Amino acid sequence: MLEVNRIETFYGETQALFGPSLRVGEAEIVALLGPNGAGKTTTIRSILGLSQPRSGQIRFDGKDITTLPTHKISRLGIGWVPDDRRVFPTLTGRRNLALGTRRTRFRSWNQSDMCGIFSALEYLLPRECENMSGGELQMVAISRALMGSPGLVLLDEPSQGLAPKIVQDVLKTVLRLKQEGVSCLVVEQNALAALEVSDRAYVMDRGVVIHEGPARDLLHNAPLRRQLIGM
Ligand code: ATP
Question: How many distinct helices (H) and strands (E) make up the chain?
C-alpha cells in the first residue's frame, strides 16, 4: 500500500531525514516510534507532500507520489489525522465531516457508518467543535479522515493530550479500521499503547530507521524497548 524508499528531507538547509525506508501493507497497522526529534512527523509530512523529499521515492497504491502536491496525494486515498486535530472550531461536527468527504477507489464512508464506529459521534454531530473535549475532537478528526475514503490513514500522535481511558478507545478504533481493510501508520510517543494495536513497528532516531520488526517483539521485550526508545 505504501512504500517509502530512502528519502532525504530538509527544512531549508537542515537535513531532517537521512534515508529512512518503510512500508505499510494492505489492512496493516504500523507503528512509527522514536524519541523527540527522531523524524517521525517529518516522515508523515514527506508522505503527504507537505515537505517534499530531495531524494528517494514514495509509492502509494502502486503510484509514485514523491513529487505530487498534497491535494492530489489526498485524492489518491491517503487520510491524515494531525496531532493538533485541525478541525474547524466554529463549525459543527457534521459540517467538519462534510468538508472531509471525498471519493477515491477505496471504500467510501458516510456519517452513519462513522456513528457505527464511534457511538458518541451522533451526539457530537450537531455541536460546534470549540465546545468539545480532546477525546471528542479526536473522534471528529478520525471520522473526517475516513470521510475522505482513504486506503491508508496517517495518525500523528493520536493519544496526545488524551486521558488514558480515551487513549485506549482511540487506538481500538485503529483495530476497527484494519477490520474494514484500511491501513494505518501510527506515530506515537505512547509506544506501549501503539504497539498493542500494531502489526509491525519501526523505530527512528536522528532521521534514520534504527529498528523494524513485528510489534510484539518490542511489546514483550522491555530491555530492547528501553535500548531503542528509552522506555
Ligand atoms: P516530535 O515527536 O518531537 O515531533 P519527531 O520524531 O516527529 O519528534 P520531527 O518533528 O520530524 O521529529 O523533527 C525531525 C528533525 O527536524 C528535528 O531535528 C527537528 O528539530 C527538525 N525540524 C522539525 N521541524 C522543523 C522546522 N519546521 N524547521 C526546522 N527544523 C525542523
Answer: 10, 11
Model pLDDT for residues 40-91, shown as the tens digit of each residue: 999 999 999 999 999 999 999 999 999 999 999 999 999 999 887 788 888 8
Find out whether the beta carbon of 41 lies less than 6 Å from any atom of ligand 1.
Answer: yes
Over its C-alpha atoms, the chain yields an Rg (Å, rounded) of 17
* Strands of the sheet with 208-214, listed across from one edge: 78-81, 152-156, 183-187, 29-33, 200-205, 208-214
Q: Are 205 and 42 in contact (CB under 8 A)?
A: no
Ligand 1 contact, 40 CB (< 6 A): yes
The grid coordinates of residue 117 equal 464506529
**C-alpha cell of residue 14:** 537542515
User: pTM of whole model > 0.85?
Assistant: yes
Counting from 1 in the atom list of ligand 1, the atom nearest the Cα of 207 is 14
CA-nearest of 14, 5, 95 to 43 is 5
Considering the four listed CATH numbers 1.20.1250.20, 3.40.50.300, 3.40.50.150, 2.60.120.10, the one that applies to the domain covering 2-86+147-229 is 3.40.50.300
